[in-house]
Amino acid sequence: MLVAGSTLGPYKIVAPLGAGGMGEVYRAHDTRLGRDVAIKVLSPHLAATPEVRARFEREARTISQLNHPHICTLFDVGREGETHYLVMELLEGETLAHRLEKGTLPTAEVLRLGAQIADALDRAHRAGVVHRDLKPGNVMLTKSGAKLMDFGLARAGLPAAAPGALTESPTVSRPLTKEGTIVGTFQYMAPEQLEGKEADARSDIWALGCVLYEMATGKRAFEGDSQASLIATIMDREPRAILEIKPLTPQALERLVRQCMAKDADERWQSAGDVRRELEWVAAAGSQVGVPVAAAGRSRGRALTTRTIAGVGLAVVLFGAGYFAAGRLTGHQTADMTSKRLTFERGFIGNARFSPDGKSVLYSAAWNGGASEVFETRTDLSTTRSLGLSAVNLHAVSRRGELALGRQAVWYGFWGGPLAVVPLSGSAPRDLLADVFWADWSPDGKTLAVVRRVGGQDRLEMPAGRVLVSTSGSLSDIRISPDGHRIAFAEHPVSGDMRGSVAVVEAEGGKETLTGEFANVAGLAWSPDGREVWFSAVTRGTQQSLVAVTLGGRQRAIAQVPASVILKDIAPDGRVLLATQRGSLGIRGRSSTDDKERELGWLDWPWPRGLSVDGRMLLLDDQGETAGPTYTVYLRNMDGSPPVRLGEGSGCAFSPDARWALTIHYGPPHRLILLPTGSGDTLSLPRGQVETYQEANWLPDGRRVVFVGAERGRPQRTWVQELRGGPPSAVTPEGTVGVTTSPDGRWVAAVTPDSAIVLFPLRGGEPRSVARLGPYEQICQWSADGRTLFVSRWSGRLDVFGMDVQSGARRLWRTFEAPDPAGLRGMTCVVTRDARSYAYGYIRILDELYLVEGLK
After folding, report:
1. Which one, of 722, 807, 714, 820, lies nearest residue 762 by Cα?
2. Which residues of 382-407 are buried (b: 16+ CB within 10 A; e: fewer)?
3. Which of 150, 216, 323, 496 is 20 to 30 A from 465, alpha carbon to alpha carbon?
4. Are 543 and 532 in contact (CB under 8 A)?
5. In this structure, are residues 118 and 145 in contact, taking their beta carbons and an 8 Å threshold?
6. Phi and psi (nearest 5°) for 47?
């Protein structure tokens, strides 16, 4: 026991704060920085035990990985003689356990604090850390909200404890935690932990459900007179319904907690981020979530809209695993609806179609970080087999039993690649056409409709070469009607942006737009009778719906779901294939100021866009939980300090002096906006004849900007604009785009429709060819000496090369990899001209495929 006035290194002990299973906690004063801290001291009799000392050190390493507003911050770790100690943030307040002794919390507080705890867990899980001892005693309530503490049992990629290893919780305050292979506090432990199995993130989600239950009811979810009876209760029984104890509790909260505490880990929410978003949805929905609905207790999630980032079409959809959200669908005939899960691996699904006889489902998927393959699943037997077609993706299945495959585009629908055809009965694929993004078979199986990008424009062709629709934006999800007379598709005004409308074109020509613009359109198919087009889209705010529209433009909601789904196919008998997704984004970066790589993502869905010249500040986009046409721009220092919101728009680049952030406001109308990074007023640049923008950058003089834009009905090209001058002027031919400029401001590096890198002069001179980009490559930055272009290549990891601008020769500069390859959908990076600072982002999406019956 330390006494007041004693010291540990530079820390002066003030008073004891408490004790746990592994030592004491003291209030202390940091004499160097003049602040009060909390010091956790390992008990001397335990310090002599190597296993305990190892756990103490593990806690230090674990907490040091985590930087989050709702996680207790580790300041220092030290040793004074034989005394081992941790120095942590001093939290003023009370534990959640002490607060619950006073009674239940108001529902609004349950939702707010629960979301904060879930957010802290999500941050830990994304760093590979499982807490394993979440309970009210390990949550501190402060003025700034909940703080998650005590990672003494946390696992960060370590093997399970060996039998007999010391596993007593460092924060045990009740006698139900004992030594053995079971670690944690029994009342909050998941069934798999009680069985001695390895805990993962879903075990923490179980504990979170128990904590939420206790916050809402004032009672523990599971009680027992002994350890044996408590374990039996957890393993075999369900807790009383929250609504029985607190009748005014929103039903949505009841369902959420029930899914957290599902006995089977596969049936729980699969990420704490999903739980956070769900809690926020319940809080935002207010009393509406208390309205009874049919089939309560099924899983549900919340929609996020989509955006293409660095060439990757991102359809982030948050969803609980185990059941499709049948009980939360609203609309017509949902009482008769049933669903069946078809896939159970970790990864993403490209496309899915019914077989010609309707007895099986064919789909392409990349599981557990592997290459994309084509699989067949029987709908009656639930048996799955690989067709032996690797590194391909399914476009469509003809009634004659032929598969249309994308050969080169490993990630379906996001890059064009060669189109091949292979019989379902088996043989070698036969190449038909290059650079195809989407394809569908005519009803007789003799003709293909395709979408190709030619001359900077997306073209819908049927047959190949005969253009029916052309746009400088993008076309997706093409489907030919059952009678073969029409083609339905989604049309997006800006290439790579999922906002768009649904349209139909006659096979003989003549387009008609059927709907207005939705924030997100993804997935489309004809009804069996050919009278309607069904599609999935965000319809209001963040409400995701399955919608039907007639050829006359009359719309109806088939079903509304509080989570995004993607419609894949409809069988002639009315059965529907729907895919759900769970997604996550991450950002890491390093600044030359401290040469330390750190986590730079936070909360919602940020994405790196640009670095300041000195490499100290990062510009990010975040679409967050909105479904509108605009995004939010943030500034974040590379030292990891909290982000600063600059305003609405899509961030593009800092000005050379870092006083302005160049952004795109998607309107309508589209505009280039300058947001001040400090004091000052927002400035809007004149548009001239430019109607849509996609990316932008500053020229080194800080007086001009360069951007990719398009006039109405024309392909995109690169433009230059004076900040104080008139309208922009084009500097590259149509279809040739790029905004990376040389350090002397003389050249812009742009990419032609045939993937050639060409340097275009900004003031006199002739264009110069450099080299050609390969598949999944893009230009990142121009080096400070003007001799090198940094080029990235995505191939399951991100390789960045230095390309000589004279010879085109390449040299590998750096390779970036995401923490977990399963479901990895894409990566991008930003780098300073001197290559001393960088940031990279990665997208992971995990899909599930469902067969649904009863939708009408």
Report:
1. 722
2. eebeebebeebbbbbbbeeebbbbbb
3. 496
4. no
5. no
6. -60, -25
**Ordered domains of the chain (ranges, CATH):** 1-90 (3.30.200.20), 94-292 (1.10.510.10), 307-583+847-853 (2.130.10.10), 774-836 (no CATH)
Distance CA 396, CA 402 (A): 8
* Cβ atoms 446, 440 nearer than 8 A: no
Q: Which residue has the higher pLDDT, 635 or 75?
A: 635
Q: Return the structure tokens found at 770.
A: 């450099």
Describe the chain by its helix, strand, coil percentages, rounded to 5. Answer: 15, 45, 45
Rounded Cα distance between 364 and 351, Å, is 6
357 annotated active-site:
no
Supply the pLDDT for residue 23: 72
| Tens-digit pLDDT profile for residues 338-395 | 888 899 888 889 899 999 999 999 999 988 777 788 999 998 877 889 998 888 889 9
* Closest of 121, 5, 1, 142 to residue 66, by C-alpha: 121
Annotated catalytic residue within 30, 119, 122, 133: 133
In this predicted structure, the answer to whether residue 714 has a pLDDT above a threshold of 80 is: yes
Question: Environment class of residue 695 by beta-carbon count within 10 Å: exposed (0-12), middle (13-18) or buried (19+)?
Answer: buried
Angle at 709 between CA 515 and CA 614, to 5 degrees: 125
Residue 574 main-chain phi, psi, to 5 deg? 95, -5
pLDDT, one tens digit per residue, over 386-432 is 998 888 889 999 999 999 998 754 443 345 678 999 998 877 788 88
